[in-house]
Write a structure and sequence with these properties.
5 helices, chromatin binding, cohesin loader activity, NIPBL protein, mainly alpha, about 130 residues, Scc2/Nipped-B, about 70% helix
Length: about 130
Amino acid sequence: NNDTEDEERLWRDLIMERVTKSADACLTAINIMTSPNMPKAVYIEDVIERVIQYTKFHLQNTLYPQYDPVYRVDPHGGGVLSSKAKRAKCSTHKQRVIVMLYNKVCDIVSSLSELLEIQLLTDTTILQV
């Protein structure tokens, strides 16, 4: 049983390392785009859309469930609890990696708002933001 717990912890660590590196890549791309006097060739729409997809995915599937238990899905298919009951059972302890991801996603969202002021984007991209 200890072996499966250790293996599960190692997988979780590996996944969170990849998620963190992806957040760093998104931040790097957005920071480059929001730098002063950047040429128009830097504003690659596909990169902007991927950053938005990454941000939306982790907000919906990682951060919201971590901070608000109403968004959590019970993997065992347990009984249906009301939102108040879910919040009452919630622990306020957050993993350090989750807090780091939260801060990076906040930086990404802030930089996206700067990018909207700098560069004209398509309607679909604006709606995604």
